[in-house]
Amino acid sequence: MIVKGYKQAGTGFAGQDQESWTGVWGSVQDLTKSFDCADRDYLAPFFRKFFPRPPGKILEGGCGIGKYVAAYKRLGYDIRGVDFSAETIRRVKDFDPDLPIEEGNIVALPYDDHSFDCYYSGGVIEHFEEGPDGPLREARRVLRNGGVLLATVPYVNLLRRMYFSTGLQRRDKNLLLQKCDQCALDSMTPEGFLFSEYSFDVGSVRPFFERNGFAIEESIPTDFLWGEVGMLLVSTARRLTRQNLDHTKSLDHTKSLRDQPSAGVLGGSYGSLRRSWLYDFLVTEDWEHPWFRLPLRALNYLSGHMVMLVARAV
Length: 314
Description:
The protein is α/β, with parallel strands linked by helices. 31% of the residues lie in helices and 23% in strands.
C-alpha cells in the first residue's frame, strides 16, 4: 500500500521544495544541543549495528544540519554528508568549518562511482513525487558492491493499513492523506495543497529497491513514539502531568524528547538527562536489549511511524 501526503501550502516541508526545507532546518536554533545528542535517538541501535568502522566510508544523503555526521564523526566513524539546502550548509559550516558536509543533490551526487561502504538516508527518498527511483539509483552508483543502504521511509503500519484499506481519506486543515496505486506526478493536487511525501508498506517499496540494484535484507518498523500509540501516550502524559511536553517533532529538534542527551554522552554540555530503562525503551528504542525486543516489535508493527530498510548493493 502507498499513501500519498499533501500539506497546506506554507505549513511545512513540501516534497523537494528547497525553500521549505531551508525553513525547516533554520528552525533548529541550537546546533550544539542537536549535535551532542544525535547518537541517543531511535536510530542509534541501527547505526551501531550497520555503520562500518574505518577504513569503511559512510555517506548521509540529505543530512540537513548534519547532526548525525557530527555525532558519529566524533565517535570515530569516517562519515560525511550532503544536502541540497545551500543556506543550511553555509550556516552549519560557519558554526563548524571542519564538519564534512557539503551542498549537493542526492539524484546527482558529487562523488565517484563505488566510493562508499554505507549510505544512510533518513526520511528523504519519499519526498520525490515521481517516486524514489532517482535517489535509489544514485545511491547504488556511489556504493561499492556489497555495500549497505540504510533508508527510512514513513510506514503504513497496521493501524494505518486498516484505516486506508476502507478507502477513507485523512484530512484536516493542513494535511491530506490518501491511498494511491503508484508514485507519479499528480495533475490533480488538491487546491491549496502541495505534495509532501509518500508512505509505504514494505511490499510496495521493495520493487523500487530491487530495480535499482538493491536487495532488502531487513525491514524494521520504528519510531513508534511519533506514531498513533506514541502520540496518544504523550497526549495522556501532558494531561496527567500538566507539562508542556512537545512531541510534535515539528522539526525544531531542540524541543523534542529525542534531543535530550543522556548524562555524559559525548561529553556534551547538555548532558542533564540520566540514562534510564524508560529512556532506552521510549526514546532510543533499544531493540538490542533482550527485554525490549518483543514489546518494541509489537508496538512498531502496530503504530511505528517509520520503517528502516536495510538493503545490500547487489
